[in-house]
Specification:
The protein has one domain: Immunoglobulin-like (Sandwich), CATH 2.60.40. Helices cover about 10% and strands about 40% of the residues. The chain has two helices and twelve strands.
């Protein structure tokens, strides 16, 4: 017997039911998504490119995987540091959508959403949320050196747009990127919907 062998067992803790998360708040936690490999440029210029790498399709919505890269021109060291700082997209609040990278979507039926840090309040009036909702997700990152800055960001789009094509629109005034867009095929998203797998089958 060792010192720790006769310690009492901790008391059993009651299992608490988990609250249901509204669909607009993020991807389901029990699904392996279907993946649409997009690999298309949203914007492509001499100094900056932005591309949509892929879309992860879930039963309720999809995750947009954006990547961008800015390369150095004739900026001084000080100017390049400013470019690097601006190139990492860090909105200060859910209301701070007018600076830095602006991302939005236009649904086939004319409805629009602009990305924010947070969606509607989690447990207030969730029955009234009809969407579309576009929110930032964690998991992005980036790197930089004396010649180039690269970064990524993930966005959750709810509900999943299947009835026609959806426009992804982006603009980044501080980096000289004008309003640019890319079309998301509703047919491709629908095909990926059939490839979703549930974690648990019983």
């Amino acid at each position: 017997m060792t010192f720790f062998d006769d310690l009492p067992e901790p008391p059993q803790r009651p299992r608490l039911p988990q609250p249901l998360r509204p669909g607009w708040s993020g991807p389901p936690s029990d699904e392996l998504p279907g993946v649409v490999h997009i690999g298309e440029f949203v914007h492509n210029s001499r100094q900056m490119v932005m591309a949509l790498k892929l879309v992860e399709v879930y039963s309720t919505g999809c995750v947009l995987d954006l990547v961008w890269s800015v390369r150095r021109g004739d900026e001084s060291d000080s100017e390049w540091r400013d470019v690097m700082d601006r190139s990492f997209n860090h909105p200060r609040s859910s209301l701070d959508i007018g600076t830095g990278l602006q991302v939005g979507v236009a649904f086939p039926d004319g409805r629009k959403a602009v990305a924010a840090v947070h969606g509607p309040p989690m447990y207030e009036g969730t029955d009234d949320v009809t969407g579309p909702v576009l929110t930032t997700l964690g998991g992005g990152g980036g790197s930089s050196n004396d010649e180039v800055v690269q970064s990524t960001a993930h966005y959750w789009l709810w509900p999943l747009p299947l009835d026609g094509d959806t426009q992804l629109v982006a603009r980044w005034d501080e980096l000289g990127m004008p309003e640019s867009s890319l079309t998301l095929s509703g047919e491709q998203l629908g095909d990926a919907l059939g490839k979703i797998r549930k974690y648990w089958t019983e």
